[in-house]
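PROTOCOL LOG
Step 1. Enter all chains and additional molecules of the complex.
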Amino acid sequence: MGENKECNSMVDNCEEVPTKEVIEFRPPLYKQRYFFVKNLVQQHKPKKVADLGFGDATLIWMLKYHHCIEHLVGVDTYAGSTSQWEISNLSPSVGDYLVPRDLDLTITLYRGSAVQKDSRLVGFDLMTCIELIEHLDSEDLAKFPEVVFGYYSPRIIIISTPNSEFNPLFPASTFRHLDHKFEWNRMQFQTWASDVANLYNYSVEFTGVGSPPAGAEHVGYCTQIGVFQKNEAKATESCISTPEEHVYETVFTTAYPSLQEKKNLLLVLSAEVLRASNSMRLRFIVDPKKKVNGRLVPEDSCVPRYGLIVTDAQRAQIESSPKPYCVGKKFYVPLERLITFPKVNRLVDSVERLRSLLSEALKLNRDQSALQVDLHDHYSRTMLSY
Amino acid sequence: MDLGICTREKLAHVRDCKRGSSGVPVKLVTNLFSLDLPQNWQLYQYHVAYVPELESRRLRIALLYSHAEFSNKAKAFDGTILFLSQKLEDKVTELSSETSKGETVKMTITLIMELPASSPICIQVLNIIFKKIFKKLAMYQIGRNFYKPSEPVEIPQHKLSLWPGFAISVSQFESRLQFTADVSYKVLRNETVLEFMTGICQQTGMSCFAQMCEKQLLGLIVLTRYNNKTYRIDDIDWSVKPTHTFQKQDGTEITYVDYYKQQYDITLSDLNQPVLVSLLKSKRNDNTEARMAHLIPELCFITGLTRQATTDFQLMKVVAEKTRLSPLGRQQCLARLADDIQRNKYARFELETWGLHFGCQMSLTGRVLPSEKILMQDHVCQPVSAAEWSKDMRNCKILSARPLNKWLIICSNRDKNVAEDFLHCLRRVGSSMGFNVDYPKNIKVQENPAAFLSALQKHVDPDVQLVMCILPSNQKSYYDSIKKYLNSFCPVPSQCALTRTLNKKQMMMSIATRIAMQMACKLGGELWAVEIPLKSLMVVGIDVCKDEFSKDMVVVGFVASINPRITRWFSRCILQRTTTDVADCLKVFMTGALNKWYKHNHGLPARIVVYRDGVGDGQLKTLIEYEVPQLLSSVTEASSNTSPKLSVIVVRKKCTPRFFTETDRSVQNPPLGTVVDSEATRPEWYDFYLISRAACRGTVSPTHYNVIYDDNGLKPDHMQRLTFKLCHLYYNWPGLISIPAPCQYAHKLTFLVAQSIHKEPSLELSNSLFYL
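Step 2. Run joint prediction.
Step 3. Record the structure below.
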């Protein structure tokens, strides 16, 4: 199955054979294929994505950054026991814990073949088969559509494969890879793809990456790509009830922290709320104040001067909310003001929600209408007094 | 780890037994877990050669692992060296594999060595195996430790996350292999550089914003959010914005905004932020120009605690509270870890295939040394608790003190009354301890560091015995400028105190007592002593630390006792340019100390015991090859006939073993004076652990002592007891401390020089504890 690394280095290998003019792709062809997938992900925002023949897991790693994806799965027949690279690059890192994702993400790698059925791969939004089918012998190639299109039946399938019409431009005139069972011209690929699409009720569009050099435009892209979209996708979703069938062996799985978990949400929310209140507190200390009903209130709007706010509209919204105030050595920020800060508002949609969450993590005043913090901290005590 | 350094075999008197005998036996639980191996277990080291040669390590490993005979075997392979726990049939095994390109590769696996379980290489392999196991326990490796990101302790008000975890290692202890785990916390900052900069801006305003940012940020290590790499901030480029373009590796141009969106699906929120510049170290050691990396502040996290944070008392208190673990809490963490390892399928499989058995927590027997009497001038006191005896010695006279006649108090105009109240108190407590304090000349100045300094310049002359400064704030510049002036330019002992401290009325007496004792020491006085049976013994403490400003400078402190009672000290300090922490000037210092001793005692000491602190991991070898000879040559040159006998002991406060006593259903800290000299020690060393510091809420950590050179031939029991006695003699604290007093003095001295004065203190001060 997919040996992306090998294909990539093929392009570099050309440089060693000076007989014909070297064709070098910028960015390298494999990156162009991966970016093609990334662009499609940006466009369609799939939640569940599987890469069949993930090879060295580079594409999986590149896709894990997309916020829309919640399940990312790789399948490869050669998936050995996981390497250090996979563990360290596919597992959550310190940054992922400090800035949790909005949505959950689990990454799972399976050992298995694209011509075996495993029920865990049913119901995906996107499946990619990058440089995969040319590695299948005729028997497996015959089974492939039934498994991927018929059984897995994802919303979108991307299949890429070499375009043999491009081969004469390469120095060596054999297949691009020794393990390739075939390399198709555009006609062959498109015929096969259209037949499969018709049979399983998909529509298909053809494109590619790796533009031919000037003067050779007629050969088409170096890599040809078919993008298959399921017709009447919505209707079938509900009637899927496939029996559980676990054929693939799990070799690696990991889950990312996200804001869906309450403790993470609380943490991020507390940080944003404290940042907002801190900015107002520093403003409050230096601004003119007056005493009203035992409270010290700012004469101005007490809107932080720098950071946190981007637009005038946001500023106006903060200005029109209740002002913070001070009683004794405590500084109070009304929740109604806190929620007008864009980064707080992004996390919670109502004052009630803000109140119920904050009451678990930070100190609120007695009627739970405002956040309570110390007016002075280490910094304002040691520095501002000079 | 200092593996393979065997110092004990050269010490004839401890070759057979290095255990002491005095004291009461005590049963202790440890954080050591036995690792049992079948008898005659061996590790087989192979070399694997590939024909044709393969560049890629991944490919080399994959090809070897694809062979069926390796699939279920315990193995560790880095692409060249292969370790197996079972011997292959033949000494040389030939295998061949086919790459996915269809190329046939021949692999030749040749047996190089058979290693016993105790060999250093084998211990390294076992450490690698445990690293693999911990990764499978969903632990995250940072440095050498493993942390649990799933159970963080959050401190939102200080933007900190603490990850609990363990420092782990496998080592050969006295009779068997042991796995050690000690609870550790990783402090993570929950703040991006952009947020930090916004904070600066809100605090200081725009006028000196750029300057403040550079001052606070340059030199900090940051962690990038997207690829988990760390960089040092070398510069800030204010002219570059995220909307500017840069050239990618493939030559195409792209803006930072688009790059992070495309690559990482990150939308930058602030398009006006500057970029941070980091110079990348070239992997090859050639002179090619360093490459620069541009980093976006919004995507970089600050790591570690900044200087501002470490001076924040509130913050440090919260961190200490959250990370402090009682012996019971610690014990529970250990039990859970052991349980996790034994339950985890992968961990069990890995251990089983290697033939390792993860055993139970080891217990051993230690001894509690007899407590020491504290000798005052006309009184011998037996403290109620050796942890602190200030109450026991109330109204006792200190051993000796010079009267304080000519001295100055400098304070701000505002603090006039504070100074007067304090002086009254000081004179009272001084007279009751036998330290006569006369009235000083009182100088009132304005409230800024420059005013204090000019008062010093104006009023201090060589006749002044001591200068006391009452500082209106703990701003570092006050302290630093005063200490710098009075320690090297105009050598006069000095005493600083904060107004805030002196204002604590209800604690006035105890504060004045502490200050009176410090002053007495700074004038060359002696506070108390313990009984030292050896009649002519010099003890020496050496410590090394890095200078705060110039990181390539190290400060070496050397403190030696100059009387048999071990109450008077000779202190030297030097700054030296070197990248290692190894002291270079010891011969000069040692000779100076011997001369001082000769002058005071009309002869040389019969014995010298040197305690060396500040030794990093893996430095033991250099110490033995480089520092011990320096000390020895000074000692042998000192006299033509019988030269003093020398012992050198390496002191380490950071060691992984922990000890607890078990009391019905709970565990506690062991009593003060507990010595462990078996089972948790190392067979190749003459070493022991001593618990000499009390921990009221947390868990005590024992101090490890390793005698690397010993001409004295003292019995192990005497060596242990001498060490314990020396932990009573630190005059800045009326109680036991965790290391021998000379080490603590040397530490205090190097700290003062490294943090504040950055110059060698004047030789004129070397006869008093001027740095207390």
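Step 4. Note key features.
Chain B has a mean pLDDT of 89.
Chain B touches chain A through 57 residues (CB under 8 Å).
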